[in-house]
Structures are given as C-alpha cells and as structure tokens.
Design a protein that fits this description.
The protein has 242 residues and is of the alpha/beta class. It has two domains: 40 residues; 181 residues, Aminopeptidase. It contains seven helices and eight strands, in the order H-E-E-E-H-E-H-E-E-H-E-H-E-H-H. The strands form two sheets. Strands 4-1-5-8-6-7 form a six-stranded mixed β-sheet, with helices on both faces. The radius of gyration is 24 Å and the shape is globular. The N and C termini lie far apart (65 Å). The site of zinc ion has 5 residues, from loops. One of its GO terms (biological process) is peptidoglycan catabolic process. It holds the Pfam family Amidase_3. Keywords: Hydrolase. It comes from Clostridium kluyveri (strain ATCC 8527 / DSM 555 / NBRC 12016 / NCIMB 10680 / K1).
Length: 242
C-alpha cells in the first residue's frame, strides 16, 4: 500500500511536470504567435529581419520616405518639383546603403502619393532601426538657404535618440558642396509623430534660393547629399550599438 501510494505520488509528479511542460510550450507558442501578429511586417524585403541587433554584420534596416508624390508635387520652382528631387535623393541613398549591406525600404519607388497614416503604418510595421523623410524647403524670402533636420518627440518619446539622429544627419549633410547648416529643430509633424522608431525629416535646402536651387538641379550634388544623409544614419546607428 505504501509502495503503491509512493508510485501514485511519483506518477502524479511526472504527470504534473508533463502537463506543465505542455502548458508552458503552448504559452510560448501563443506568445510567439501573438508577437508575430502584432509586429507582422508587410514589407517583403524587411520581413526576414532577425530579431535583435545583427551586430556581427552591422546590417541595418532603414526606411526612407521621399516626400510628396503623385498629385502632391510639394514645393516647386519653374519645372523643378520637390517630389522628383526627394525621390532622386532617396534612390541614391538606397543604392549607397544597399552597397554597404544595409536593407532599405522606400515608402514609394515611383511618382505616387501616400497618405500620412499609410507612411506611418509602413514605418511602424517595418522592424527598421531608423526612418528618414526627405523634403525640400521653400520660403518667400529668397535669401533663406541651407539644410535643416527636424525631429519630434511626443511627450519626450525617444527624445535623446531622435536628437542624436538629427544631429548626426545634419552634421554629415553639410560636409560637401557648400551647403549651409540651419541646424536641427523640434517640430510637430505628423510623419514624425506617428513613428515609433527614431525618425527625422531632412529639409534638403531651399528651392527658392538661387544657390540651393543650383545644387538641387545637379545630379552629382544630389548623389553626394544622399550619401551624406546615409552616413549620418549609419554613424548614429553605429554609435547607438556601442
Ligand atoms: Zn515637403
């Protein structure tokens, strides 16, 4: 009787352990499923990003947003339209970043208009490390020139990172071709407010200023600017990995 009840206790223990193991496995499966559902990325080229930072290869995932598109031309001067300039810069940046082994997703690859919340959804479901929206400035005062990088932190959200990213990009942007730096500025913009990852908006010079306009109509300058923006992103990400 004593032997039997010992056996019973042992059996109960084993049974209990097995139940717990199966139960625990189900919970982790459920959690795994849930986390996949929550963060599911619709972006084909970013969806396979491994979880955690891929430190060994220094491979980053970056979303670039060429401002405006389609019926929204952005600012313009003569036949120069912001939507075309931003797309060129973004494509040059993508090529450069890809060449360094990074994965880049452009919110648009062609001349089409995306709703701001659509851009927000792309950014937030992308798994990306950073987000940069590219624009061109304009002003009635034709003397205004130079590059400004804008950031926004909602209630201090990622403030430190966003300021760092903005500073890093602004610093690199003005390295070539005589661009003037107008510094970084905090501005409440929807495209930055919706972003859950560190993101900034670069205003790549003033189309209304003669010197900036000359730069913006020169492919070599646009390419160099794109590379400098890219280096600003990489430098920030390298720094934040340390
Ligand atoms: Zn714009």
């Amino acid at each position: 009787m004593l032997f039997n009840s010992k056996k019973k206790v042992m059996f109960s223990c084993v049974f209990f352990t097995l139940v717990m193991l199966i139960f625990a496995k189900n919970i982790s499966l459920l959690n795994g499923k849930n986390s996949i559902n929550i963060t599911a990325a619709p972006l084909e080229n970013i969806v396979n990003k491994p979880t955690g930072k891929d430190v060994s290869s220094k491979k980053y995932y970056i979303v670039l947003d060429p401002g405006h598109g389609g019926i929204d031309k952005g600012t313009s001067y003569g036949n120069m339209e912001e939507k075309n300039i931003t797309l060129k810069i973004a494509k040059y940046a993508k090529t450069y970043l890809n060449g360094k082994g990074n994965v880049v997703f452009l919110t648009r690859e062609e001349d089409k208009l995306l709703a701001l919340d659509e851009i927000g959804d792309i950014v937030n479901s992308s798994y990306a490390d950073a987000f940069v929206s590219i624009h061109v400035n304009s002003l009635n005062d034709k003397d205004f020139k130079g590059i400004t990088t804008l950031y926004y932190d909602l209630n201090g959200y990622q403030k430190e990172e966003r300021v760092k990213l903005a500073n890093s990009i602004e610093k690199e942007c003005v390295k070539n071709d005589g661009w003037e730096s107008r510094g970084i500025r905090r501005q409440n913009l929807a495209v930055l407010r919706y972003s859950k990852i560190p993101g900034v908006l670069v205003e790549c010079g003033f189309i209304t200023n003669e010197e900036d306009r000359k730069r913006l109509s020169n492919e070599k300058v646009l390419k160099k600017l794109a590379e400098n923006i890219s280096n600003g992103i990489i430098n920030y990400l390298d720094e934040s990995e340390k």
